[in-house]
Amino acid sequence: MESLDTIYPEGSFLATRLSESATKWVPGNSHGIESHTGHLLACVGDLPLLVHKSVMAPAGLSAMAACGVSIARNTETYLTALQYEARVRERTGLGQTAAFSYSQNDDDLMYRPVLVSNDLLQFLNNKENIATLADRKNVVARFSANQHIANDFKDLQVPIVLKVATNAPNTGGAAVYVCRKRRHLKRTAAQFLDATDILAEQYIEAVGNWCIQFAVLTDGTVLYGGASQQICFPNGIHAGSLIDAAQEPPTVAVDAARNAVCAGAQKGFRGACGVDVLLDRTGAAFVVDLNFRPVSSTAFVHDHTRRFGKGRAGTARLAFCQYGGALARFLYICRDGFEEGWLVPLATFDPDYGNLGPGPSRIRMMIVADDMDRLMHRERQLLNRNIQFDTIADVRKTRPKWPLSISRFFRR
Fold first, then answer.
1. What's the average model confidence in pLDDT over 98-109?
2. Domain that residue 55 falls in
3. Are residues 86 and 189 in the same domain?
């Protein structure tokens, strides 16, 4: 993925903050909302970016710079939601174009000009419309499950995948539940009780799970931007990404994703986006989610390609890390990894610096190794230092009982 300033039109700015009123199908709390505004710092270049002050702590930026990260050069900070809205209004009032990552659900937040209309953002990111945008052969068999929820979905056959079809923002697996056992159906019914539209999809015994990225330029040209494998829990929760030099997405997967993005481009989408594609044992590719916005792995793929070239030497993992202490201490206990080059902070979050109150510090970390065994060893080093591999499992109201280790997902 090229830096985003080469993708977005001149005169535009990135507004990636999610409104608190639109978080039903998005994980996290207020800290998560604000920390997420910094996830593109390593890949925007000169493109203006609105970020919360918490992601611009001097100690964090210093560590990123020392590790060779190309930090955003045109940021504007805010402290509160009202300040963020004021910053957007000021810029659009001057004729700058707002490139929103998420649709806005409040009429008084309908800014002009915008790069992609609010209605189109809602349509493109609604899971129901996968069948409209992707080729038929790349769409999983599906049906409406609305009539089954009154019975806690008990009459559905497992394994099955249940998804909320909504125009509201939805990310990270919060609107998806993979039900492998019958007991999962009741749990999902409780989670999706307030959902208006629910889809049931055929469960795919996947041998590959890719997030494939594209750039849609101002003239509608669609360019492939790279890919990473997704690390997900059995229930569908996203827990990071993986780049392995020995594995690239097959052409059938890239083509399936590209066709969906081209359909979105024809409707008017512009900017960076990512498409989630599963591969089954026969080699068939299925589009399972559309993310018409920069995704969590955009900076990861960009920085890895910039460092190692498109040949993708070695192995790397994107991990969402937390530490129950100050960011300065978090950085200090990672110093050997930074100095030796196997740890790269792509974004940091300091709630104290951002006046957000108590909470863990966070780092979006790229862990680099020559092979998978070494990668898992380095991951264990971090776990042994009381660094948590963050997940969005708290959206389920229960946390997983296993450690968030890559070895859990990639066993030999």
1. 77
2. 4-123
3. no
Place of tokens 């863990």: 360
In a shared domain, residues 91 and 134: no
| Helices assigned H by DSSP within 71-146 | 81-93, 118-125, 130-133
Q: Are the beta carbons of 287 and 256 closer than 8 angstroms?
A: yes
Please list, in sequence order, all residues whose beta carbon lies within 8 angstroms of the beta carbon of residue 173, skipping any fewer than 6 positions away: 27, 232, 235, 236, 237, 238, 392
Q: Do 194 and 229 reside in the same domain of the chain?
A: no
Strand partners, 14: 49, 99
- Domain boundary residue among 202, 227, 252? 202
Which domain-ending residue is among 169, 202, 235?
Answer: 202
pLDDT on residue 64 = 98
CATH number at residue 377: 3.30.470.20
Same domain, 282 and 195: no
Token couple for 212? 């494939």
Q: What is the largest CA-CA distance in the chain?
A: 57
**pLDDT tens-place string over residues 215-261:** 999 999 999 999 999 987 776 667 789 999 888 999 999 999 999 99
Determine the Cα angle at 353 with ends 347 and 354, to 5°.
80
Instruction: Provide the domain count of the chain.
Output: 3
What whole-number distance in Å separates Cα of residue 314 and Cα of residue 322?
25
Task: Give tens-digit pLDDT for 278-325.
Answer: 999 999 999 999 999 999 999 999 999 999 886 556 899 999 999 999
Residues 220 and 260 in one domain: yes
CB half-sphere exposure, 108, CA atoms < 13 A = 5
- Report the alpha-carbon distance of residue 23 to residue 106 in Å, rounded: 13
d(CA 180, CA 13): 42
pLDDT per position as a tens digit, 133-170: 999 999 999 999 988 887 889 889 999 999 999 998 88
